[in-house]
Amino acid sequence: PAAPRINPSILSADFVNMQADLERIASADFVHVDVMDNHFVPNLTFGPQMVRRIQETSPVPLDVHLMISDADRWAPGYAELGAASVTFHLEAAHDPIGLARRLRAIGARAGVALKPGTGAERLYEHLHEFDQILVMTVEPGFGGQSFMPETMPKLRALSDEARRVGAAVWFQVDGGISETTISRAAEAGADTFVAGSAVFGAPDVDVAIADLRALAAE
Ligand code: DX5
Ligand code: ZN
């Protein structure tokens, strides 16, 4: 299998020293950018203007995670500003397949995210429409929460099905990923790991990224 990808979440970065924190994670695969609207989730981060500057500044490609309502309206703008991947929530899209096709047409990887309580059944027939599926391992909204192991059967079932049908989709986990939880997610089929506090809270960010990557590859 391909080397596991580690995507640090800048939700745990210093928002007034964003350029410095982006440069600290140059050894990562992607930078995970959490967009929140205070409506889909009870927290607010930033929108396209900030993400455009992150895109211009970051040494690594952007993995945008949209925790916003009415994703159909807003997601394409993030693809247009150059994000490598744009992931919207299944719960927040009116036409998930149509939206994924629009994102791909613009040139982004199309991602769909599932909250812990959202079933994956609707995706089974459409795995080839997505480049990545994000199985949330906490309730979206905040960093620093505890990993929810009860989400692992859903991840396992999805990744098994993707292998069965030959869909080249990446499986991402987000929330509570650390040196103590990453192996469980990898065993259940994840290949892409978002980590906020485990990276930015570490004394040496490069060591934290390398350690997570090594543990996920075991
Ligand atoms: C939560 C965000 C995550 C968050 C993860 O809603 O989607 O990306 O930053 O933070 P940690 O790794 O600290 O759980
Ligand atoms: Zn996220």
UniProtKB/TrEMBL annotation:
Keywords: Carbohydrate metabolism, Isomerase, Metal-binding. Pfam families: Ribul_P_3_epim. It catalyses: D-ribulose 5-phosphate = D-xylulose 5-phosphate. A divalent metal cation binds at H32, D34, H65, D174. Its cofactor is a divalent metal cation; Mn(2+); Fe(2+); Co(2+). Binds 1 divalent metal cation per subunit. InterPro entries: Aldolase_TIM, Ribul_P_3_epim, Ribul_P_3_epim-like, RibuloseP-bd_barrel. Its EC number is 5.1.3.1. Pathway: Carbohydrate degradation. Substrate binds at S9, H65, G141, F142, G143, G144, D174, G175, G176, G196, S197. It comes from the Bacteria. The active site is at D34, D174. Gene3D superfamilies: Aldolase class I (3.20.20.70). NCBIfam families: PRK05581.1-4, rpe. PANTHER family: RIBULOSE-5-PHOSPHATE-3-EPIMERASE (PTHR11749). Catalyzes the reversible epimerization of D-ribulose 5-phosphate to D-xylulose 5-phosphate. Belongs to the ribulose-phosphate 3-epimerase family. This is Ribulose-phosphate 3-epimerase. The lineage of its organism: Bacteria, Bacillati, Actinomycetota, Actinomycetes, Micrococcales.
